[in-house]
Amino acid sequence: MKTDIEIARSIALQPIDSIAQQVGLPLEQLEHYGRYLAKVDLKALEESQSEGKLILVTAITPTKAGIGKTTVSIGLALGMNRLGRRAVVALREPSLGPCFGQKGGAAGGGYAQVLPMEKINLHFTGDMHAITTANNALSALIDNHLHQGNELGIDQRRI
After folding, report:
1. What is the pTM for the complete model shown?
2. 89, CA 20 to 30 Å: which among 9, 53, 54, 115?
């Protein structure tokens, strides 16, 4: 049986533009992050011609084989597409746990993976960097405000 990484390396990646065309998404609604990753503009929802269905995979206890929410979500979309239904998966940004060997991969597993997994696990679209930068800036502003006399009366025990 092939490992997840062996399966991932055996697959020829399709450019994200090709995948967008397959699901009827206009290319101008993509914000590219290289050749294989993109965000979809929110306008795509507003301009959609048809009503879609939504399947939420919100909680699952992963199996010993590592099948969890991501793998189930990807597998559902693959199955729907195989049945001739147009389906896409929306995944949130993964935690850094997989990078440190603390939990399963955030890109699915087996033949139900999102690739390139290393970009998804480490960088995705750069949002995490923006969030941590904003968090650090806010922390510095609060620290400075407290140092300058705490005019707003911020309770330091509740920060």
Report:
1. 0.56
2. 9
